[in-house]
Amino acid sequence: MPIRIVHTADNHIGMPFRQHDDETRTRLIEERFTALERLICEANENHADFFVISGDLFDSSRVKNSSIERTVDVLRHFTGNSVLVLPGNHDFFSGEDTEVWKRFRKASSEFSNIDLLVTTAPVSFDIDGETVQFFPCPCPSKTGREPVTGWIPSVEQNLEALRIGIAHGNVEGLGLDADDRYFTMTMPDLESLGLTTWLLGHIHVPFPTTPSGCDSPIFMAGTHTPDSVRCRHIGSAWLLDFEESQLKQYKQLHPGRLQFIRIEQNLHGGHDISKLEHACDALDPDRVILDLKLSGQLSSDEQNTLNQLLQKIEDSFQSCSLSVNIKKKIDKDIIGAHYPQGTLAEQLLSKLLADQNHPNDVTLAHDLIKEISK
Amino acid sequence: MRLLSIRLHPFGKFQDSSWDLSDPLVVISGPNETGKSTLRQAIFHSLFTPTNLTPSRFRNLIAPWLPLPAGDYVAITLDIEDNGTHYQLKKRWGSQSTSHLMTPDGSALSDTESIARILEKLCGHNEATFRHIFFTGHDELENTIAKLKANSLELRDIRSLVQAGNETAGDIDQRRFEDLLEQRIKKYFGRWDVNRQRPIRQNGQEKLVGNEWKQGVGEILTAWYTWQTLIAEQKTILRIEKEIDAITSQLITIEEQVKTDQKFLSEFGPLRDQLSERSVMEERISRLTSELKLLRKVFAAWPTAHASVDAWKIQRDSLVTQSKNLDDEIRIARLREQADDITHNYHAIESTEKEMHEAQDAMKKQRRPEPEILSTIETLHNEVTHLENVLAAQSLTYSITSDSAQSVVITHSDDPPEQREIQKIPFTGTASGRIRIESSGLIITVGSGTKDVEEVFRELHKKRTSLGLTLENCGVSTVAEAREQSSSYDSLALRMKSKKETYRALLQGKTRAEWDKRFAEIEGLRKTRDSKTIELELEAVRHSISTGEQSLKTHQEQIQLWEKSYTNLEALGEKLVTAQHDLRTAETTLTTLPHAPSSFPSSDAFVHSLDSAQERININSEPRSTLAAQRGGLEGQLGDRRSEDLAEEADNARNHFEHILDEGNSYKRIKETLSGVTPIDNTSLDEFNKRVAEIFSTISESDSQIDFLDALPSHITRGKITMSPERLSQGARGALALAIRLTLAELYLQSASGFVMLDDPLVHLDKERLGEAISILKSFSKRFPVIFFTCHEQQADLLRV
């Protein structure tokens, strides 16, 4: 019988989403729980033996108690052997007084299938005669220059067992950590520790990049549901099958239901507006948190068309933020139509229009002229 | 450019109507609703409205002219003449919109852009010029009048229009625009240093976040402060996070230590009392063992000490006697050793005396020449040598040969003659001073010639003879022998003197007799061993005595001490037995007590560890609390802010700042561009004012003088009456407005051709002024084409005359 594991990380329960409006914020906060619930359900449907969370289950160590209790309530429904929770760098474990984990332990005390991995020592399980040994590497702080895997070489490994490392931190080549602050690990170092594979967290982009396969030295879960527009995927987790202490196959899961989409477009005419409309029509307004950043220059008619489109978008998308910086298009025809030839305005605007490197200059000058003319 | 004709097919209410526009003054008349405005609009749209309109533009511009009830297109055909060449323009808006231009060379254009360009060129002026200058509806004229009436006419507008007519800048007040632009630039760049891209310094001080400018801050600086504030906030958060991590690390260390200590205490704490007892017992055993060892030692040593004392007392007498004997022997041995020196010296005196006498005898026997005789011998020897040298200096060389063998006798100087056999081979030789050769009775004598050689020879012979006699008297044959004799004698004398001195020294101030006596005494002492041997033996004996005495003292003191401590040997024995018993008891007790963990060398060490662990727990309590409080404080400062969120906010703020900066720079570029636009020229205003006054005076039939204040009619003087424009009648104001409009049109049409469209401009004029105005218009139309719309047939008739 294969050993089956569902791997997730960076759930960031308790993330405040302060930059969003109230309605969107509520949706996003709720989604973090519901996506986790979906993942638990999927793990149960797939009869997973373990549900591994490789760090940052919580967004910080000051998460509200209600969020902790709700999280435990979600996790306890896992029907497999154990939910293994590793503290990450946002919800690091700094001793028994760490508030979030004290409360987590209290909330999960009656559920024996939830294990908090705060000790740097192997944890073994027996699944139908097969031994599974986990090597947890919890984060002791928010930042750190040394990898958290340093204790592993000094312990004895059961070479007959399925040996799996669980850690949280940056991996060289996968994430950006220019200041080397987040417990950076390297692939060669991880492979040299001699474990079957590594279940990692911290980088919100999943690894490997293929959605299924049968070989990978490490797995980065990626966040289970996107948390900002920087997260271009739709949420990720891994379903892993192991047989005879080896990885047999892996498959990507998508428990998330919301997606952040940012469209940045420079509009210069009706064609661009149509393009924008098509782009928005291709999105699911119930599942997309849309961020539109529009700039450019349009004529009055085009501006009206755009306004109608934006109204339509605002009406159809549940969550939508707009940033519109469209200037009135000033072209030769408009200048000719409004400013007699040879006049100051006509000369000035014509000269500014000729400067193609600074297309906004003519618009600003026109606005000033309008202001004087009022 | 001149319009020739226009056909609307359809446009508005006209299904298919045409008009001839080729006259200089075209008068279109008819009651209201007859389509005059429609025609005016059709002319305008044909020239300036493209057919490829967006739906909304179509709706706004053309849709009002679609034929009712359901027309879906409008169409116009316009014939144009330009410098003798003919163009035909066809435009259709709405369904199947098209544009079509037939050019003079016969080519047909249908591209909207190309047609628009050609029309622009033909028109000579842009759409706005036509709309605002050439096309004057009676609402525009009304506006002009209304503004005059209200005295709020923006005659700067007119001035700029005037100046535009002369192809100079205009249509907005340049000064106002510059002011507004300057305000805008100031609004953006307030307190911003463009060179450093930073806030302007105040007295050399930076005005960064935390020390911001409060007054006069522009948009750019505001945006910059916002951005920098977010960066600072982000840095603060990162710093706080770092501090929290540092404190956490310390706390972890303390926690681990406390945990370890607590575990240790909980596991081994209960052992403390038993191990304390064990420690005491171990100490007791150690003490008893030492005590027992001491007692045993004393018990064995005491009798030995007594025996040693007794033995020594016996040995000591013998050693003292031995010492005395050795003292005596060594005294005699030393005397003998001293005597050796005297004996040696005595023998030396004897031998030296003997040598002295021998030297004396030898001297007596040695012959020597007296010093004066020796001196004479030396002198004679020197003289002989000198004479021989003189002769040698005058040496002669010779060579003798003979054809036949002959015998010759050769005498050199004073030497004896020599016989030689001479043959053909030459016989050579040298002689000093003189040579004599004898052969067969022939005698050849050769002298040196420079000196009297014979005299020299004679002197030499004399000296040699004297020297020989002297040597013979001394008993020697040569000068060297004489010298040797003298030298030997001198050596003997010296030797004798030396021995004498040695002898005297050896006597050391004593007489020979005293030395004889002393020597005899020494010969009488008895024989001993050498003093060194005796000394060594004596030293050994004395050492033995000293050691023995010391040992005796030690033993006696020790015995005293023991007697004081233990009274006697029996008492000591009893004490020994007691101590043995106590030790056995303590050892038995120890076996019942637990041991300290094997990692500790002793119970003491273990108990000390327990105490240390407890002390550490106590000590760490305060730092734990302090650090936890510090961390709590920092976490409180942090709140729920995240450095990642701030990074995004800062990024957005940076983008905003760059956008604002860009806008500010745009305004600067606009200012720069403005400076390149031709500046206002005031001279055209005078011309304009004069012409307006002229037309006004003509229409008003009065010699009116208009005073302008910066292109604004400030006063009108008729005769002796001067009034402000608002005091003018409606008709006069209308005349003034018409004068201004016509003058403007004239100015523009001077630069390029065009035509004027007037829509009932004379409606407010009374009869008197009307006639003059019509006259003005007719005159105007002779120079520039005019299309005149009116619903007043009377005016139309007057114009057509």
What would a concise description of this structure say?
The complex is a heterodimer of chains A (374) and B (801). Chain A has 374 residues and is α/β, with parallel strands linked by helices. In chain A, 30% of the residues lie in helices and 25% in strands.
Number of separate strands of chain A: 15
Pairing-aware structural class of the strands and helices of chain B? Answer: alpha+beta
The DSSP helix count of chain B reads 21
N to C succession of SSEs of chain A: EHEHEHEEEEHEEEEEEHEHEHHH
Q: What summary fits the major beta sheet of chain A?
A: 7 strands, mixed
**Uncertain stretches of 5 or more adjacent residues of chain B:** 148-156, 165-170
List strands and helices in order, with pairings.
The complex is a heterodimer of chains A (374) and B (801).
Chain A: E1 3-8, H1 22-45, E2 50-53, H2 65-75, E3 82-85, H3 99-108, E4 114-116, E5 123-127, E6 130-137, E7 162-168, H4 187-192, E8 197-201, E9 212-213, E10 218-220, E11 237-243, E12 246-253, E13 259-267, H5 270-281, E14 288-298, H6 300-316, E15 319-328, H7 332-338, H8 344-354, H9 359-373
Parallel strand pairs in A: 1-2, 2-3, 3-4, 6-7, 7-8, 8-10, 13-14, 14-15
Antiparallel strand pairs in A: 1-11, 5-6, 9-12, 11-12
Helix pairs in contact in A: 1-2, 2-3, 5-6, 7-8, 8-9
Chain B: E1 2-8, E2 17-20, E3 25-29, H1 36-48, H2 55-61, E4 73-82, E5 85-94, E6 98-102, E7 108-109, H3 112-123, H4 127-134, E8 135-136, H5 138-150, H6 155-165, H7 174-189, E9 192-193, E10 198-199, H8 219-268, H9 272-365, H10 371-393, E11 395-400, E12 406-412, E13 418-422, E14 427-432, E15 434-439, E16 442-447, H11 453-474, H12 479-507, H13 512-522, H14 531-566, H15 569-591, H16 603-638, H17 643-675, H18 683-700, E17 704-709, E18 712-718, E19 721-723, H19 730-749, E20 756-759, H20 767-783, E21 786-790, H21 793-800
Helix pairs in contact in B: 5-19, 6-19, 7-17, 8-16, 8-17, 9-12, 9-13, 9-14, 9-15, 9-16, 10-11, 10-12, 18-19, 18-20
